Amino acid sequence: MLFMCHGTAKPGLSADDRQKVLQIFRGWTPPAAMRVEAHYVDVSGHDYVVIETDSAEALLEATGVWAPYIDYTVTPIVAAPAAVERIASAEQTRQQIL
User: Fold this and answer.
1) 19-71-75-26 Cα dihedral, nearest 10 degrees
2) Could you state, in chain order, the average pLDDT of each consecutive group of 10 residues for the chain (98 residues)?
3) How far apart are CA 90 and CA 88, in angstroms?
4) Residues 3-13, buried b or exposed e (16+ Cβ, 10 A)?
5) How far is CA 48 from each of CA 71, 86, 92, rounded to the nearest angstrom?
6) From CA 45, how far away is CA 72, in angstroms rounded?
7) pLDDT tens figures, 49-59
């Protein structure tokens, strides 16, 4: 299953906190039960991480490492072609029921 993890730095991070975030980033590896598919940072410093995992525990562990410094919103996502198929199927089911 794919997830989009959107990270926002907690308000009031000190310069020392920012250095800690960089140090964690350099030394951290994802839990074995998850794979980072993509990781992007926008110009305002928010990060977007696409993760593949079937383990809620792995997501908890991964985001927990950053918890003192970054707030994450974790959202299940679907590739666009698959989403279109599922939406079309849902529409068809609704039409059959109504």
Assistant:
1) 10
2) 96 95 95 97 94 96 96 96 94 95
3) 5
4) bbbebebeeee
5) 12, 24, 33
6) 13
7) 999 999 999 99
What pTM does this model have?
0.84
> For the chain, how far is it from start to end, CA to CA, in angstroms?
31
pLDDT digits (tens, 9 = 90+) for 84-97: 999 999 999 999 99
CB 8 within 8 A of CB 15: no
**DSSP code for 54:** S
| 3-class DSSP assignment, residue 32 | coil
Contact yes or no for 84/38 (Cβ under 8 A): no
CATH architecture of 2-97: 2-Layer Sandwich (3.30)
